[in-house]
C-alpha cells in the first residue's frame, strides 16, 4: 500500500503530508529533559584533523579492503553509504569509545564498520546494536534485499562477531530498560521527529562523561542535501525543538566530507550532538 501511494502521489504532495503529520506528532510529545553534562564539547571534536589523519587512513584502507573482499561490493547497495561508513569508522577510531550503542541495525552495514574499528581499540570494546526487527531472522531485510547472509553471519566471516551484541527491540524500550552506559551513541533508527526527540533525551542519560551522540539523516534547516531532492526532516526538527527549549545542545553537521558519499557529492547527513 505504502509503495502504491509513493508511486501515484506526486513527491511534493507526499512530502507536505508527511511533514504535517510529523510536526503534529512532535507537538504532542511533552517536554523532555536534556542533561547535556556528559556530552563532549563542540570544540573538543576536530573533524578536519580526524578526517585527514594518515594513521586512520591506513587502517581504514586495510579494514575497508578486508570488509569488501569478504562481503563483496554488492554489500554497498544498502545501509548508510560508503562515504558515511568511512566517516563513522574515522570517528570511532579517533575517539576510541569502548562501549557503543547503535540504533538501527538494518543489514548491519554501519555495524560491521563500527565493529572493525572497535577491534583495533580494545578486546573489551563492543557495539550494542538495536533494531525493532530481528535483523538476523530468516525473512529480515538482508533476505529481501538479496544479500547472501544475515549481519551476524557477515560479522562471523569478518572475525568481528565478538565485538557486536545484536538486540531486537524498539529502541526506546531498550534504552529505558538497559543498565549499560555508552561512550558513543549512533542514532539511525526511526527518523520521525518525535522518536528522535525522545531518543536523544534518553541517550543523554546513557552516556559516560565525554560521550558523543552521532545522528544520521540530519538535514540542516530541513533542506535537501543531495540532487535527488529527498529530505528527511525529523532529526533536524527534533533537535531544533531541543535547542528552542533552551538546552545546552549544539549540533555540528559534518557537512562535506573529503571523499565522495552519494549521488556524485561529498555531502553527508551525519551530525554530531555536542554541548557548546
Ligand atoms: C536506515 S536503517 C539503518 C541502516 C543501518 N544503520 C545500516 O547502515 O545498515 C533504519 C533501521 O531502523 C530500524 N528501526 C525503525 N524504527 C525503529 C525503532 N523504533 N527502534 C529500533 N529500530 C528501529 C528499522 O527497522 C531499520 O532497520
What keywords describe this structure?
Rossmann fold, 7-stranded mixed sheet, binds S-adenosylmethionine, 11 helices, 7 strands, globular
Structural notes for this entry:
The protein has 276 residues and is an alpha/beta fold. The chain contains eleven helices and seven strands. Helix 6 links the parallel strand 1 and strand 2. Helix 4 (54-71) packs across helix 6 (109-119) and helix 10 (193-206) crosses helix 11. The N and C termini lie far apart (44 Å). Residues 79-80, 103-110, 130-133, 170-171, 188-190, 195 line the site of S-adenosylmethionine.
In short:
The protein has helices spanning 2-8, 11-27, 47-52, 54-71, 82-95, 109-119, 141-144, 151-158, 171-177, 193-206, 234-244, and strands at 99-103, 126-131, 164-168, 182-187, 207-215, 250-253, 271-274. The protein is α/β, with parallel strands linked by helices and 276 residues long.
Topology:
Elements: H1 2-8, H2 11-27, H3 47-52, H4 54-71, H5 82-95, E1 99-103, H6 109-119, E2 126-131, H7 141-144, H8 151-158, E3 164-168, H9 171-177, E4 182-187, H10 193-206, E5 207-215, H11 234-244, E6 250-253, E7 271-274
Parallel strand pairs: 1-2, 1-4, 2-3, 4-5
Antiparallel strand pairs: 5-7, 6-7
The chain binds S-adenosylmethionine.
Residues 79-80, 103-110, 130-133, 170-171, 188-190, 195 line the site of S-adenosylmethionine (SAM).
CATH class: Alpha Beta
| Shape verdict | globular
* Ligand types: S-adenosylmethionine
CATH fold-level name: Rossmann fold
Order of secondary-structure elements: HHHHHEHEHHEHEHEHEE
Number of strands: 7
Q: Nearest-angstrom radius of gyration?
A: 18 Å
Roughly what is the average pLDDT, rounded to an integer? 94
**CATH hierarchy: architecture:** 3-Layer(aba) Sandwich
Q: Looking at this structure, what is the CATH superfamily?
A: Vaccinia Virus protein VP39
Helix tally equals 11
Structural class: alpha/beta
- Classify the oligomer: single chain
Q: In percent, how helical is the residue content?
A: 40-55%
Uncertain segments of ≥5 residues (pLDDT<50)? none
Amino acid at each position: 500500500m505504502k509503495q502504491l501511494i509513493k508511486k501515484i502521489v506526486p513527491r511534493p504532495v507526499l512530502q507536505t503530508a508527511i511533514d504535517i503529520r510529523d510536526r503534529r506528532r512532535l507537538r504532542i510529545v511533552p517536554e523532555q529533559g536534556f542533561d547535556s553534562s556528559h556530552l563532549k564539547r563542540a570544540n573538543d571534536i576536530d573533524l578536519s584533523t580526524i578526517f585527514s589523519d594518515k594513521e586512520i587512513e591506513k587502517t581504514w584502507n586495510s579494514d575497508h579492503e578486508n570488509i569488501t573482499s569478504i562481503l563483496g561490493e554488492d554489500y554497498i547497495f544498502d545501509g548508510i553509504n560508503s562515504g558515511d561508513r568511512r566517516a563513522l569508522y574515522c570517528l570511532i577510531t579517533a575517539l576510541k569509545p569502548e562501549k557503543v550503542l547503535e540504533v538501527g541495525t538494518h543489514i548491519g552495514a554501519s555495524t560491521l564498520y563500527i565493529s572493525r574499528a572497535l577491534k583495533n581499540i580494545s578486546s573489551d570494546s563492543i557495539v550494542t546494536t538495536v533494531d525493532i526487527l530481528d535483523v538476523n531472522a530468516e525473512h529480515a531485510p538482508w533476505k529481501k534485499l538479496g544479500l547472501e547472509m544475515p549481519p551476524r553471519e557477515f560479522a562471523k566471516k569478518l572475525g568481528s562477531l565478538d565485538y557486536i551484541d545484536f538486540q531486537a527491540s524498539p529502541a526506546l524500550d531498550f534504552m529505558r530498560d538497559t543498565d549499560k552506559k555508552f561512550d558513543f551513541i549512533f542514532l539511525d533508527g526511526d527518523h520521525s521527529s518525535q522518536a528522535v526527540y525522545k531518543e536523544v533525551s534518553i541517550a543523554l542519560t546513557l552516556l559516560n562523561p565525554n560521550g558523543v551522540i552521532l545522528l544520521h539523516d540530519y538535514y540542516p534547516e530541513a533542506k535537501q542535501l543531495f540532487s535527488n531532492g529527498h529530505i528527511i526532516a525529523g532529526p533536524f526538527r527534533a533537535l531544533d525543538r531541543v535547542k528552542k527549549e533552551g538546552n545546552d545542545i549544539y549540533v555540528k553537521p559534518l557537512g562535506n566530507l573529503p571523499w565522495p558519499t552519494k549521488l556524485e557529492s561529498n555531502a553527508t547527513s551525519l551530525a554530531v550532538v555536542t554541548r557548546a
